[in-house]
Design brief:
The complex is a heterodimer. Chain A is an alpha/beta fold. Chain A contains six helices and nine strands. In chain B, α1 runs parallel beside α3. Classes of the chains: A alpha/beta, B alpha/beta.
Chain lengths: 189, 281
């Protein structure tokens, strides 16, 4: 694995995701050379509590993605609640309030599909716990464009529907527990 | 797909999108060339799939030669997702900080730029009425998309959204009963006609049309996020020229003028709510 270098990691999580991310993200090494970009489905009325909390417990800086912000290593970015998060060719974020996709805004598919266009084979996509199938189309496109697909082990996931749906949608590269996903990412330092 | 194929496909798609947007501009005068690319690309790809076309060049051909098709898909290029009292704290701040200042003026002109289907325009009309601003106030609600403008003018909304709107209204400091502002039909509600008396709906394109004069306040929410930085600068420049001295500007909660070349022409009234005030030159 070490021979291949990756430019960015996108993560999608839904029901059970806050707990999973609170376990996974603090494991990540502060010198991780690629940015982490996360869509976590949330209530539309939620505030900045999650990013503030994660920023306290993580070694990397955690923040909400701002529109036009330049994507940099050292950060874990979260899609703001009630906005889709997209990645532009110049490696900046854009936001959108378009219709929900697969009942979700932010949508994991929207992030993953735009990220695949930008990063192609140097992208890692990850699907964690969740009770719907958002992200399956996105992870399929990431694989199609030569990127790497990692899915949380459905046996470990609090809700296994989203990981299972992702596994059905494409030939994923790794099915791992959260601990192993942490180790897996840290090897890129 | 192999790596090189993917790179080439993405590169070619980028070129085809640029050509398509140029074609739309040359043929129909609608200018999407300054829109954030990832977003406009998604909309275009979506339309391509719906029309059952296999590539962007086919779509371009159809758009050029089939005027009816273009006008059918045009509404999809603008975003028409909005709600009444969207971000209630924004309206609460208008109520507390801005309306008391506007009330002192002999006449008030408010411009809702990119008003979409009108939910936020009627929110403003309710707010003004509750704050006792009923005379000498004019709201100009504009959009480039005539179909949504017609919907805005009708003021008919699905009954399923009323629960959310009522919640928003209350959190925005609503002092009455929200049900007083609409009449229920079978599966929809109709906004009370009295709220429309100070509103003028008009066709205006922020990208290609000019100044809209001497406004006391401009509301333009969740429109600028779809534009490139360059186009954002241009449109905020248009707002600077359209505002009277000390006029207010209200943006969407994820929008800011901080990085814009006109930033120094404004002071921040409520940074969290993205409400700004034009400085005297």
């Amino acid at each position: 694995m070490k021979t291949m270098s990756y430019e960015a990691v996108v993560i999608g999580a839904s029901a059970g995701g806050v707990e999973a991310l609170s376990k996974l993200l603090p494991l990540l090494h502060p010198r991780l050379p690629m940015p982490i970009i996360v869509v976590q489905h949330m209530s539309t009325r939620s505030d900045h509590y999650l990013t503030q909390y994660l920023d306290r417990i993580c070694q990397l800086s955690v923040k909400e993605a701002d529109e036009k912000e330049i994507i940099s290593p050292g950060f874990i970015y979260f899609a703001p609640s009630n906005y889709h998060l997209l990645i532009e060719m110049d490696r900046t974020f854009s936001l959108a309030v378009d219709e929900r996709v697969s009942f979700s805004r932010p949508s994991i598919d929207v992030l993953f599909e735009t990220a695949a266009d930008v990063y192609g084979r140097s992208l890692i996509g990850m699907i964690l716990t969740g009770a719907n199938s958002d992200g399956s189309r996105g992870i399929h496109k990431i694989k199609q464009y030569g990127g790497l697909a990692v899915v949380q082990d459905p046996l470990e996931a609090e809700i296994d529907k989203m990981p299972k749906s992702a596994i059905q949608s494409t030939e994923v590269d790794y099915i791992l527990s959260l601990d192993k996903i942490g180790e897996f990412l840290n090897q890129f330092i | 797909m192999k790596g090189q194929c993917v790179d080439q496909q993405v590169e070619n798609e980028e070129i085809e999108i640029s050509l398509l947007l140029e074609a739309i501009y040359l043929k129909y005068g609608y200018d999407f060339r300054g829109y954030a690319r990832a977003h406009i690309k998604r909309r275009i790809m979506h339309q391509m799939a719906l029309a059952d076309l296999s590539n962007l060049s086919e779509l371009q051909h159809k758009i050029l030669y089939d005027r009816g098709f273009f006008y059918k898909i045009l509404p999809d290029f603008s975003i028409n997702v909005t709600e009444m009292f969207r971000d209630p704290s924004f309206y609460m701040t208008l109520r507390r900080e801005v309306i008391p200042i506007l009330k002192k003026y002999p006449a008030i002109k408010i411009w809702h730029a990119g008003c979409s289907t009108g939910e936020e325009v009627y929110s403003m009309a309710i707010l003004l009425q509750e704050e006792g601003v009923t005379d000498n106030v004019q709201i100009y609600a504009t959009d480039f998309n005539e179909a949504v403008l017609a919907q805005a003018q009708q003021g008919i909304y699905p009954i399923s959204s009323i629960k959310e709107y009522t919640y928003n209204y209350q959190r925005a400091g609503g002092s009455g009963s929200f049900a007083d502002y609409y009449t229920s039909q079978i599966d929809s509600v109709k906004i009370d006609a009295s709220l429309k008396k100070n509103i003028v709906f008009a066709d205006h394109n922020l990208v290609t049309d000019g100044v809209f004069g001497e406004m006391n306040m401009i509301i333009c929410r969740n429109v600028l996020i779809y534009f490139t930085r360059k186009l954002q600068n241009q449109v905020i420049g248009l707002f600077v020229d359209s505002l009277c001295p000390r006029g207010f500007l209200g943006l969407g909660s994820k929008e800011t003028i901080r990085f814009c070349e006109h930033a120094h022409k404004f002071e921040s009234i409520a940074e969290e709510e993205k409400i700004y005030r034009k400085l005297i030159k």
